[in-house]
Amino acid sequence: MKFKMTSLEKKWVLYDVGNSAFTMLVATIFPIYFNYLAENAGISDVDYLAYWGYASSICTLLVALMGPTLGAVADTKNFKKRIFRVVLSIGVAGCVLMGFLSHWLWFLVVFILAKTGYSASLVFYDAMLTDVTEPERMDTVSSQGFAWGYIGSCIPFIASLAVVLGGGKLGMSMQASMMTAFFITAVWWLLSAVPLLISYKQKYYVETTEHVVRNSFIRLGKTFKDIWEQKHIFVFLLAFFFFIDGVYTIIDMATAYGQALGLDSTGLLLALLLTQIVAFPSVLILNRAAKKINPTTVLTICIAAYLFISIYAYGLDTQTEFWVLAVLVGMFQGTIQALSRSYFGKIIPAEKSGEYFGLYDICGKGAAILGTTLVSVMTQLTGRMNVGVSAISVLFVIGLVLFRKAVKLNEGRKATR
After folding, report:
1. How far is CA 244 from CA 182, 216, 319, in A?
2. Cα–Cα separations (whole angstroms), residue 353 to 6, 129, 343
3. CB 192 within 8 Å of CB 111
4. What's the CA gap between 63 and 397, in Å, rounded?
5. What DSSP element (H or E) covers 60?
6. How far is Cα 394 from Cα 399, in angstroms, rounded to an integer?
7. Residue 206: helix, strand or coil by DSSP?
8. Where are the beta strands (DSSP E) in 18-143?
9. Which of 35, 202, 208, 405: CA 20 to 30 A from 354?
């Protein structure tokens, strides 16, 4: 029987289409423009890559500090959508503002603000999954979100790419072209959120109390204790911390890495567009495989595939090899994120989804503090960018071992019920 999404599920998926446009810009045009600003300021290629990595790490740290707290507050009745609206506005405003900046340091500062708003919005967006669908539909709905997010993000990206690459012929300066590209992405992102903001209602929540923030901290403390006692959740989060850090490091650093290697900018952008196109059918195909085999088996295959990708990146030094990397990433990128999100959504208490997804986001989406810092430090210590990038293979090895442990713990828990 063909899977049919409800109206609310479609609106939830639509936000993935919008926020993925920002992700695409961060992975492609942002680092190229930052490289342009850095070169004008006389910054070396090695330092350029390191500074970009440090900025991504700071974003992660900020969300790690705020995410669980905001998530706990958002679990209070009628709060989830309010906070989602605020952090979404910060991200969109930051995206627009970056187009007006021409100094590399100020660009990085506002980039941190915009990406922090984006990453924080995902804490609440992911937590909404338990409200918009049922547990038995989560794998497919989550996969649909990533699938349509990848293909949908190509629309504003192609428009932005046309402006950036063709702006000179229209008499536009580099900054004017970038300003237009950032504005296109921000508007697309904002408009995609409107249907969800209008229709979403918090289904699972804790009742409003007189001291919302204080009680949220109390609940958060209890959640930390509960997670420690529920080993199947704790070990999964630990596994997720390692393998998804590796995934997002590759996403955040791929274009910066290719740029630092001296590869053609247009080729890099087109290769990453190919990643989005490949990702769309790949997510749907692997989701179908997950239904027939087992979601945890498919997720294991995805982690192992990323281990191979990180090792492959060590010898990367040509445009063709970068295109191969882009295809490989596209094949597994969406599925590893989608199945991780839905697996976590099924093993946590629905009424505490904000708190739990706040903790999930420390380890996850948009958060790659360990990986980006590892790449930056190893690059500067060795003076070799390929050593820094390939060092993240360690994250996938640890993540794979811990994930299989988490699966066994969860299966053992269900068997004893």
Report:
1. 27, 27, 26
2. 21, 9, 13
3. no
4. 25
5. helix 45-74
6. 9
7. strand
8. none
9. 405
Q: What is the pLDDT of residue 269?
A: 73
The Cα–Cα gap between 67 and 73 comes to 10
Tokens of 75: 């679990």
- Residues 53-73 pLDDT 10s: 788 778 877 877 776 677 667
Please enumerate in sequence order all residues whose Cβ is within 8 A of that of 364, keeping only pairs 6 or more positions apart, or say none: 240, 241, 244, 248, 340
Q: Tokens representing 134?
A: 């049922």
For residues 245 and 336, the answer to whether their CB atoms sit within 8 Å is no
The gap between the terminal CA atoms of the chain, to the nearest Å, is 31
Tell me if residue 264 falls in helix, strand or coil.
Answer: coil
Pick the CATH number of 8-201+224-415 from 2.60.40.1840, 1.20.1250.20, 3.40.50.150, 2.60.40.2140: 1.20.1250.20
Bridge partners (DSSP) listed for residue 76: 206
Is the pLDDT at 308 greater than 80, yes or no? yes
Closest CA to 327 of 265, 279, 267, 266: 279
- The answer to whether the CB of 238 falls within 8 A of the CB of 290 is no
With a cut of 50, say whether residue 367 has pLDDT above it: no
- What's the token pair of residue 412? 């053992």
Which amino acid is located at 42 in the chain?
A: G
β-bridge mates for residue 206, sequence order: 76
Do 83 and 73 contact (CB within 8 A), yes or no? yes
Two tokens at 65? Answer: 């500090």
Per-residue DSSP letters for 340-405?
A: HHHHHHHHS-GGGHHHHHHHHHHHSTT--HHHHHHHHHHHHHHS-HHHHHHTTHHHHHHHHHHHHH
Find the farthest-apart pair of alpha carbons in the chain and give their distance in angstroms, rounded. Answer: 70
Q: Which residue has the tokens 């045009």?
A: 29
**Residue 221 Cα distances to 65, 218, 227, 239, angstroms:** 14, 5, 10, 22
Can you list the positions of beta strands (E) in 201-263?
Answer: none
Residues 6+ apart with CB under 8 A from 106: none
Domains of the chain: which residue ranges? Answer: 8-201+224-415
> What's the predicted TM-score (pTM) here?
0.73
Residue 171 gets which letter from DSSP? T
